[in-house]
Request: fold
Amino acid sequence: MPVPESGAAAWGRSLAAAVLLAVLPGAWAQQPAPARLALCAACHGEGGNSQIPQFPSLAGQPQQFIENQLVLIREGLRDIPQMKGMLDGVKDDELVILGKYFSQQVPAAAKTRAEPGAYQRGLQLSQKMLCGTCHLPDYSGRQQIPRLAGQHEPFLLESMKQFRDHPGLGRDTVMAAALFGLKDPELADLAHFLTHFKP
Reply:
């Protein structure tokens, strides 16, 4: 059974991938989709299960959601500095292959324990906000709506803050409206609940 990488080791792999891409501009885009998976894993983890809390896991995300996000990033409609230029020249059919692959991977469970108070507050807030209506009751997502269950807590929290504080190009206006007015502690409780959610 493989031993999980430490955060430092995973970060080192991410940095190595970034250096490789900087040294070989355009090389990533010229590789067939299967060859790209090793570079995807540098940040998003083997099989799409990220070992770096600030980077999202892609495993089990809906295929259509992944494909759409990749197109938005490629076209410059989503500004993600770490992904800048990585999808330049990548064809739609290659993005479909990547989306299908990651959507079929099994998401890993959270490695941390839930704090009962934060979990319960997050549960109640999620029910009040009807999060399960769009993201489904098990928070697995569907079509263009992402999976939230088991996602890294720091990533979820930062993403929700971005939706709330910086709505704009490439961002879901429904989410910006849904999170409007929520305080940071409420977002933290939501992120904690979703990370540790088990059906």
Notes: The chain has ten helices and no strands.
